[in-house]
Predict the structure.
Amino acid sequence: MVFLSIPADYIPIAIMFVVAIGFVVTTIFVTHLLGPKRKSEIKLDTFECGIESQSNARLPFSIKYFLIAILFVLFDVEVIFMYPWAVNFLKLGLTGFIEMLLFVSLLMVGFIYIIRKGALKWE
Amino acid sequence: MAAINIDHYLLLSAVLFCIGVAGVLFRRNAIVIFMCIELMLNSVNLLLTSFSNQHNDPSGQIFVFFIMAVAAAEVAVGLAILVMIYRNAKSVDIDFFNKLKE
Amino acid sequence: MNTIVILSVTGIAAMMSDVFKLKKALFGLSLLGLLIALVFSVYDWGQYATYFNQMVLTDNYAVVFTTMLIGITFLWFLMSKDFFSSHSSASEHYALILFSLTGGVMMTNFSDLTILFLGLEILSIALYILAGSDKGNLFSNEASLKYFMIGSFATGFLLFGIALIYGATSSFNLQEISAYVQQHNGSLPMYFYAGILMILTGLTFKVSAVPFHFWAPDVYDGSPTLVTTYMLSVVKMAAFAALYRLFIYCFAPVYEFWIPVFAIMSAVTMLLGNITAVYQKSLKRMLAYSSIAHAGYMLMALASPGGTSRSALMFYLLAYAISTLGVFNVLYQVHKVTGREEIKSVKGLFRKNPFAAIMLTLCMLSMAGIPPVAGFFGKYYMFVSTLNGGLTWLVLIAVLSSLIGVYFYFKVIIAAFQEPELENTAYYRQPSDLTVLYICGILSLLLGILPQFVAGLL
């Protein structure tokens, strides 16, 4: 197989771009034209789930969010190693299955570690 | 119009890599530097994937998986270091960190 | 392969020991794991076996460096016993050191660029954390951040180089790349050579060779002393083992291309390292610069590959690592009592503890390369191998810069024999504190008297 893609191969992508941009432009303009317009102070106020907005959005927030997010990223990324294994599942057979069990159990060791260390405790 | 072949991918990832290097060298905010390092790694990923396609050999793509996993671990450590530093210094500007230069 | 498995299992056990309330057993457990790994490593001697789909290759070169790495780490553990047992997160420290040792062993056993990359990262990521393990100290924080940024930056270069090599040869395996390069020598694409240069850049960042050394003094100075010891001995050894293995096993067919790069780098590195070290007042920072200079001498092995360069590099690294451990043992004890790390802090060592002063002298002589200790033969083998390679000018520069080195190493020796300054005399009350210094001094002397036993291994 030769690594060669001619510009014609990109036509579906171009069509997708045109459709996506067209949809956005159409909806914005059409609703703008069709909808009735009434301006009052309450209408123009920042809308936040029906509750009055309180302060700036850029507040420092708890470090616990950061910890959870980082742990999530770490465990989440490991899943990519299962894709090649799943694709070749039948070919790899029992050996591959045992190796994957080993891999997952190592991940579990890490998981047990963070639980026992209390990294996931919120209080 | 000319066909898009490996040279174009090579050029694209070289340009991305150079943008990353320039960012690491010239930006002063540690977070932005992290992002530039990620850009460097991702340009490598792009290059490996296109070479893998060219050679019709999947091992290049598997290497990309390893790079992604390691990059995630690296970022986790790097952000933890930054949080630790922010607690002590209240800043992530790297010009602040020249205490050891004397 | 067994060594890698045992070391990682020991690391995981050390990590979990805190969780399962086995912290008391931690130290013994780690030492036991290291000993078992050492036995298995020596047991592989004389074999030529590949594991994990030809990704790991255990040959004599790998066995010698693996054994040295584990042995040095063992001594390091003996030296740092009291520090980590008093620390609240001791188990994490032990685990990180064991993990990074695993990475180092992978870097000496690799036969595939994937393993080189993974080993380097396992080695480095653990050390980024350890460099900042003194959490409240801004110097330690700065060292950690710098090490992390430079480390990942260098990794980017290494990876781009690997990708280019893969593109040119369609393989990550050292043997296959070597065969391909041999076959197509002369008709390789330009980006293959660019790839070699980028890999070279990435790895010489790790061994702190000029012009990629600027991070090293700050990082070595700012990290906790014990972590610096580990970086200077084990990390440097692993990085050099990997660098030499990669270029000899893989890029030997195009050696005309990369030899001049290493030769120039080596000359500049040893000159700059030695000259800058003269001006340092802090003992720790002086040793950091001297380690850059030593990297220059070690690069001579790559500037004249083939012949006896392999055993010369091995012997030099061993002599250097042993004397580094000895000197840092003194530095650590001095720092613990006086809180200072200047050269004059060792004053009065001879008055209080003559044996320790003599052992420190042996280690310092070994670093300076003066007979009859190990460092002299390290330099001797290296110079002979380089002369056989035909690089007389490089040897001349090396001899010149060694003479500069003698000056600042002797400053430490003289300080040790001088009368003590007032308040800093109490630092060696417990004799056990300096065990590693004694071991290292005696080993340096033994290697100096009988160098051929070790040098003949490779």
In short: The longest strand of chain C covers residues 49-51. Residues 259-458 of chain C form one domain. Chain C touches chain B at residues 114, 117-118, 121, 125, 128-129, 132, 135-136, 138-139, 141-146, 148-149, 152-153, 155-156, 159-160, 162-164, 166-167, 170-172, 191, 217-218, 221-222 (CB under 8 Å). Residues 355 and 403 of chain C are 27 Å apart (CA to CA).
